[in-house]
TrEMBL record:
Gene Ontology molecular function, alphabetical: hydrolase activity
Protein's UniProt name: PHB depolymerase family esterase
Domain of life, per lineage: Bacteria
Keyword Nucleotide-binding included in the entry's annotation: no
One GO CC term, this protein: extracellular region
Keyword Signal among UniProt keywords: yes
InterPro entries documented for this protein: AB_hydrolase_fold (IPR029058), Esterase_phb (IPR010126), Plant_Biomass_Hydrol_Est (IPR050955)
Length: 301
């Protein structure tokens, strides 16, 4: 069920945006302190969630108030998917130029133009089906995004049917590493630069097997030319981070595994820098993925 809200709706509906072939809803949050030339983060909710509920749980709009970040929240209709999930596995909703990806692209165009967003600072993140759709957007429109953060998601186009999607979620079979890379290369005409990739996953996720996180990393390693083991492994309180960098030391891919966490978005609501609130699939583990992701993207400087 959607996360309940203890405060009035913060998001503003985006009524008209392109042809909307995926028949999605859209919401925005533009903080009072937003200035032209600022960044945009696209935030995709998970199954059984709403845009408003996911914002309240993750704390993105609260962070936007702190640092002047524009937010776009695409939202699924129950009429499109009975669980309110983005249709990341359907052929008609996983390619460039049609379906739900094109609807999200149209939303981004509208917000970037209306609010004078810096086109080189557009980012995207999502949980579960929203994480899988984040993979879709990064593969099909890589030129649009500076970076993406995939939370408890799946690699791009590893399933074409609902049954196949359920198998992939449980970690059964799937494309080879070479096929994973080819799927991204064939998704657009882009030959670089490519968005940075951040992969987040609970080490005890019982809904989307953790092997999917490793598959996402492998899908993008050859794209970013950082094949092989990570350049560094960081052990933090509650999570481990593996990092792949280029010759200049810039992080191109990282993978964050949360110790003991099940399926959901890691949040840290306590303390002065706390964000969000605990709820369904919004898991209080003392780690604010929202703040850490925004820090990595340079949005909090």
């Amino acid at each position: 069920m959607p996360i309940s809200s203890n405060h009035p709706d913060r998001l503003t509906p985006l009524v008209a945006f392109g042809t909307n072939p995926g028949a999605l809803l859209a919401n925005t949050y533009i903080p009072k302190g937003f200035r032209p030339g600022g960044p945009l983060v696209v935030v995709l909710h998970g199954s059984t969630q709403s845009a408003e509920g996911y914002d309240g749980g993750s704390g993105w709009s609260a962070l936007a108030d702190e640092y002047g970040i524009a937010l776009l929240f695409p939202e699924q209709r129950i009429s499109n998917n009975f669980k309110g999930a983005f249709n990341w596995f359907r052929r008609g909703d996983s390619g460039r130029g049609y379906g739900e990806p094109l609807s999200i692209r149209h939303m981004i165009d509208d917000v970037v133009t209306e609010h004078a967003i810096d086109p080189f600072r557009v980012f995207i993140t999502g949980l579960s089906s929203g994480g899988a759709m984040t993979s879709v957007m990064l593969a099909t429109y890589p030129e649009v995004f500076a970076g993406g953060a995939i939370i408890a998601g799946l690699p791009y186009r590893t399933a074409n049917t609902l049954m196949q999607a359920l198998y992939r979620m449980k970690g059964y079979s799937g494309p080879s590493d070479r096929q994973l890379t080819a799927l991204v290369r064939d998704a657009s005409d882009n030959r670089g630069p490519w968005p940075t990739i951040s992969v987040w996953h609970g080490a005890r996720d019982r809904t989307v097997d953790m092997c999917n996180a490793d598959s996402i990393v492998r899908q993008w390693q050859q794209i970013h030319q950082v094949e092989g083991p990570p350049d560094s492994i960081e052990h933090h309180d509650g999570y481990t981070r593996q990092v792949w960098t280029n010759a200049q030391g810039r992080v191109l891919i990282d993978e964050i595994l949360i110790k003991g966490m099940d399926h959901g978005t890691p949040i840290g609501a306590g303390g002065k820098k706390g964000l969000g609130r605990e709820g369904a699939y919004m898991l209080e583990v003392g780690i604010s993925s929202t703040r850490i992701i925004a820090d990595a993207w340079g949005l909090t400087k």
